[in-house]
Amino acid sequence: MTTELGERGDFADFDALMHDAARAPEGLADVDPRRRRRRRWIGWTIAAVILALVVGTPSAYVTWALTAPLPTPEATFTEPAVTVPAAAALTLPAQGSSAISVAGADEYLGAEAAGIWATSGPQDPAPMASITKLITALVVLDAHPLTGPEDQGPTLWFDDADEDLYDAYYVQDVTIARMPAGSSMSLRGALATMLIPSASNYADVISTWAFGSRSSFVSAARTWLDAHGLAGTTVVDPTGISSRNTSTPADLIALGRIAAANPDIVAIVGTRSATIGSAGTVHNTNGLLGTAGVTGMKTGNLGAGTFAFLYTSRLDVGVGTPLTVIGVMLGGESRDAVNGDVLRLLGSIQQGFHDVPLVTAGQDVGEYTTVWGAQARMAVASGADIRTWSDTPITVTSDIRVPETYEDGEVIGSITWTAGPRTASVDVVIEGDIEPPTEWWRLTHPSELGG
User: Fold this and answer.
1) Sorting pLDDT into bands at 50, 70 and 90, what band is 34?
2) Strands 74-77 and 97-103
3) Domain 74-84+357-441, classified CATH 3.60.21.10, yes or no
């Protein structure tokens, strides 16, 4: 054993120690010879003890040094920082008045969003134009309900007086559809002709058929509005031609919810075009159907500055089930202006939901270091991002455990981020092996062993 260690040349310091211990310390030439001999004896004694420990009893020391537990590698870990985006801004219409309700995102937007989330412009009653026809349909169906999608309802027969309405409304320059005397149509078909192309003569005929007269319909409509808490809404005719048919944005949001809960209404207002008996092929006045998730409901206008739109949308924002949006605009300058405002508002909601980057694959989050000089990195095994709304706070938690092998690829824990109702997690792994120390390091570093 002595020969092997000597051949490694690593006892140069030991020889020097013995030499230094044997010679008189520098500057002591004039010291008493007996004192010099005593110092020399102490130095040789120390060297002899060290030699006895290392060389003289090799079996005990070597066995201990080669088997003693190693100090645990020192770990440093830092949770990765996340930059939260700036708050989102809704692009609300600058013209007229508006309101919007968004359901299905309470965890992001707050429960109040499912009521009325945002408004713009005056919220007082304003002309609702042909949105009135949606009330007409609901009041009629309340008195004459359809039992399912296959139920066409009772048959309406048109007479000369009904045919004359075509001409009466024609001269008022409003939307109409043919109803020749002697022809007939199911209630479902007549409602579709009233709502899809917004035929005013059909609104008049249907309401009179259902309640006997226009005045009786108006009375029934008032009762229905009161029953549904729509105190801010006034109906004076079934068509919406009169500017005295008014409502508030809040009432129309509530009306949208009622209509959206009626499958017969939903099916009709979501139809782009249809061929319906004597009315022929009709086209929906809602040009946004299918765009930005728009599914309905009713447009209206009495000329410039009175364009109205009550709309619904199943808006996909990448968080699972699309959001349920009900919105309304009143007092728009034109149909194109209203449609543009609606698309910008819905687009701003979609853009407010974004993927926030959290980490990239292989990103360092810490390291392990040892007293014998070995090192290994802590890194995330994969990249991650999280879908969230606006500037929703993002919290991070980590669970890092003591490795078992300290080998490359060993999973040593995880990091989890939470934003609203969503979470994202990645594994943390070791990159690079922590090699054990050499036998020589163990033999020459007794003080570090067992730490």
Assistant:
1) low
2) unpaired
3) no
